[in-house]
Write a structure and sequence with these properties.
The chain is of the alpha+beta class and 123 residues long. 49% of the residues lie in helices and 26% in strands. It is elongated, with a radius of gyration of 25 Å.
Length: 123
């Protein structure tokens, strides 16, 4: 069959392109998820470190939170202290595909633990 000559090459090329596109999509999703986890970790650790200094005021608490967030390769985007609670927002730049850049963001809250201690029930 002369008309079918070379059709296998075109088919193999098409399958290869589909697999390449799927691989690129998987890599993009993976890098975005990794950046999100990095931002979440930076925000969590920054909030915990800032909460330890919340008693000294917002400036001291947010400065410590910023140190920890930056040490975790993220950027502090917001920090607020309300009483002894601190809310830290962190962002990580991610480039899932060439020419496309996004920000993965996360927020964390930390503060003292309030526990009500009830007397044991009689019985």
């Amino acid at each position: 069959m002369k008309g079918d000559r070379g059709s296998a090459s075109v088919f193999v090329l098409a399958v290869g392109l589909v697999l390449m596109a799927a691989g690129l999509a998987g890599a993009a999703v993976g890098s975005a998820r990794a950046a999100r986890h990095q931002a979440r970790t930076a925000a969590d650790l920054g909030a915990l470190a800032g909460a330890a200094r919340a008693i000294y005021g917002q400036e001291a608490a947010c400065a410590r939170a910023a140190e920890i967030v930056v040490a975790n390769r993220a950027q502090l985007t917001a920090c607020t202290v309300d009483g002894l609670e601190i809310v830290v927002r962190a962002a990580v730049a991610v480039q899932p595909l060439a020419g496309v850049s996004r920000q993965a963001e996360a927020a964390a809250r930390a503060g003292p633990v309030y526990a009500s201690i009830d007397p044991p029930a009689p019985g």
